[in-house]
Amino acid sequence: MHERNDGARLGAAEIGAELGERATLLQFSSAFCQPCRATRRTLAEVAGMVEGVAHVEIDAEDHLDLVRRLEVLRTPTVLVLDADGAIVRRAAGQPRKADVIGALGAAVRD
């Protein structure tokens, strides 16, 4: 997962769900995307391990304005948001669990 600090912030209204208290794992998926299923499992598992972290999955086809604005070019794309909804990390493709946990370290401030 690489660092992404372009000043973009996302709120509950934009992603259709509440942000996590400490961080949010935001996943862009599409209907026939095999890696999206594995990514969903990985992110849900990590969110379950770390208190205050939410996993939110968005269907890219239903949110084309957001996809364009955030330059999501493929699914799955995962954005790691801090408590304020700022994008701190992003990855295209299926992330490894260790990378997700590491990226959360940049987002979670105790």
TrEMBL record:
InterPro entries the UniProt entry points to: Thioredoxin-like_sf, Thioredoxin_domain
Domain of life: Bacteria
Thioredoxin domain: residues covered: 21-99
Protein name: Thioredoxin family protein
